[in-house]
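Quiz preparation item.
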């Protein structure tokens, strides 16, 4: 079994920071064509990473989080997300293989076919689902959730993981991916990019990439396309998360050189968010349609969710931003150009200007799907009727019960 690149670089972490391989690395890189961009685009395709029936960047985080749950003696993972959470589904599918049960606290967002399909998968996974509707209700229910899912065999609390698995430990999943990308550049599989473009839904992917690229000695910067307005996602917050991951590595014994992380390492673009989290936009749908016409862009259905569409809209749109130079992506296409000789100068690669900011929400309320939790408008007047909290429990025997 091949050791993770982080362990190869810092062997002292092998015992103090265990890793559980859940997919085949490295994930492939390939150029993208047919998207109407003047400069070459490259894709690092994370959509197929994972052996457990669901792939993508969330699996990378679980490779570091699941061993930590065992180290703490936890029996249950407790985490949060939206109705169509990719993170929650990945946790629900991979954690039971390690003898852990999963509880998900879910909040509402607009429902589409992808969300309905995700809810069917979540219900089939065996996880306990708590439909809490709003972020406020989720916060107020937190003590009850911890008590509800504490182990009856001892005073063991569930192992809580934030949205997207974006804790300092989970962020190491994309430190590993950045080291992988650096090795692919070193091996000549793609030119060294100037930018890595990725969606920012909870921040762990972007923060891990920034830290990993510094650890690899590269000066590539990260451009994050913000797709979530329910969390604080700015350069300061993401840089702080990267620094916490760096501190974690040092606390576990890694002898790291000064990495020099700065606020300029991660830049964020909010221009493609639209009305809010999981709301469809015309630009996102156009990006999806363009990607569908380019077989090289989407070998799998990894642009099905609205967040992925919003993130792909930035680099896939035909307009340009001249201040952005070479770039590369983890799971969304973006601009890149190969190094040029002094005698051959090319027009700088670019990313598109964002659409005008939208400050209004749809005037017509969305009807919830029949199998989805009722949608709650965040502006419901005080005293108006709100549906009760719903919990769906799937009882699963713990492997220890069969010993």
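Solution:
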């Amino acid at each position: 079994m091949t050791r993770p690149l982080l362990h190869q670089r810092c062997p002292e972490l092998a015992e103090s920071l265990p890793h559980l391989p859940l997919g085949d690395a490295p994930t492939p890189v390939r150029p993208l064509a047919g998207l109407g961009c003047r400069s070459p685009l490259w894709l690092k395709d994370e959509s197929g990473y994972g052996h457990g029936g669901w792939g993508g960047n969330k699996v990378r985080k679980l490779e570091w989080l699941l061993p930590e749950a065992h180290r703490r003696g936890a029996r249950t993972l407790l985490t949060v997300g939206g109705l169509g959470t990719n993170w929650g589904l990945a946790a629900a599918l991979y954690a039971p293989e390690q003898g852990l049960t999963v509880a998900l606290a879910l909040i509402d967002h607009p429902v589409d076919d992808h969300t309905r399909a995700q809810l069917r998968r979540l219900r089939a996974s065996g996880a306990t689902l708590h439909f809490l509707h709003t972020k406020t209700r989720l916060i107020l229910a937190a003590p009850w959730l911890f008590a509800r899912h504490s182990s009856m065999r001892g005073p063991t609390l569930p192992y809580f993981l934030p949205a997207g698995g974006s804790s300092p430990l989970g962020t190491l999943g994309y430190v590993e991916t950045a080291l992988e990308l650096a090795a692919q550049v070193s091996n000549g599989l793609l030119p060294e990019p100037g930018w890595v473009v990725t969606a920012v839904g909870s921040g762990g992917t972007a923060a891990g990439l920034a830290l990993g690229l510094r650890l690899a000695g590269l000066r590539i910067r990260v451009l994050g396309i913000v797709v979530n307005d329910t969390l604080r996602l700015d350069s300061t917050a993401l840089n702080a998360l990267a620094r916490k991951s760096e501190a974690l590595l040092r606390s576990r014994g890694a002898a790291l050189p000064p990495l020099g992380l700065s606020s300029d390492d991660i830049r964020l673009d909010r221009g493609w968010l639209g009305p809010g989290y999981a709301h469809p936009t015309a630009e996102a749908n156009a990006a999806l349609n363009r990607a569908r016409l380019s077989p090289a862009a989407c070998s799998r259905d990894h642009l099905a969710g609205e967040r992925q569409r919003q993130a792909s809209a930035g680099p896939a749109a035909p307009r340009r931003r001249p201040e952005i130079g070479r770039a590369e992506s983890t799971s969304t296409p973006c601009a890149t150009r190969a190094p040029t000789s002094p005698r051959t100068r090319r027009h700088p690669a670019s990313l598109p200007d964002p659409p005008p900011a939208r400050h209004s929400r749809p005037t017509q309320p969305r009807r919830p799907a029949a199998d989805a939790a009722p949608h709650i408008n965040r502006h419901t007047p005080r005293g108006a009727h709100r549906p009760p909290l719903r919990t769906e429990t799937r009882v699963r025997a713990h492997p220890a019960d069969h010993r």
